[in-house]
Structure formats: C-alpha cells, structure tokens
Amino acid sequence: MSSTIPLITTSEFSCSACQKIFKKQSGLSRHLTIVKKYNIPRNNLDNLSETNNKNFKNILVYLIHCKLPNGFKKGGRQLVSLACTEHQFFDIFKGYIHHHSNKNIYKCIFRGTIGYQTLSEILNNPLWG
Ligand SMILES: [Zn+2]
C-alpha cells in the first residue's frame, strides 16, 4: 500500500503594488529591493519650494480628473503621464515609485481603495472622486 504525498504547490508570491507574480520568495524580494532603489534620489537634491510643489500637485489632480471622469469606480487601469523634471517628480512621489525605465520614465502604481487614499494624501486633495 503506497500513499502518495501530494506535492504542496506553494502559493505564488505576488507584489501587492504591481501584481507581478514570482515563483519564489527570493524573486519577490529582489523585485522589492529594486523598487526600493528607485526611491533613493541619485543626486543630492534639495527640497523644492512649497509653492512649486503645490502648483504641480494641482496640475496632477486636474489631469487625473480628466482621465477619470467617473472617478475610480470605473476600475481598470488608468495611466496618467506628465512630463516634468525628475527633481519635481521625486519630491512628490518619493517612496511610491515602482518602476524606472532607462528612458527616465517613472511609474507609480496605486491600486484600489488604499491607492486612492494614498494618492489623496500625496496630493493633499481628499475631495476628488
Ligand atoms: Zn511590483
């Protein structure tokens, strides 16, 4: 009588931000390490003035509103892109950058309710949607 022990298929590891799936824990760790590096400024950048950031945030809120006329209820993926200086982007989104291409394109990913709240905190605008 032989009993076969079922192979336990370990659940896959996925990144909570971008939903990328990794077969191993180490793969996910590596991914998160890389993401962490994106959020460290390469040069010693000074903080930008409050007014400068405020204006930039207002533009962003406006752009997001245009992209999402029905608020976030519609779901799906929305891409809001904006050309700005690296410095400016960093000052506002440091800690949330999730992708950096060699063409100097940064991506932040905000998902679901938590993403919504995070964004409103970053942009100091709780009233949208
Ligand atoms: Zn990810």
From TrEMBL:
Residues 13-41 form the C2H2-type domain. Keywords: Metal-binding, Zinc, Zinc-finger. InterPro entries: Znf_C2H2_type (IPR013087). One of its GO terms (molecular function) is zinc ion binding. PROSITE patterns: ZINC_FINGER_C2H2_2 (PS50157). This is C2H2-type domain-containing protein. The lineage of its organism: Eukaryota, Fungi, Fungi incertae sedis, Mucoromycota, Glomeromycotina.
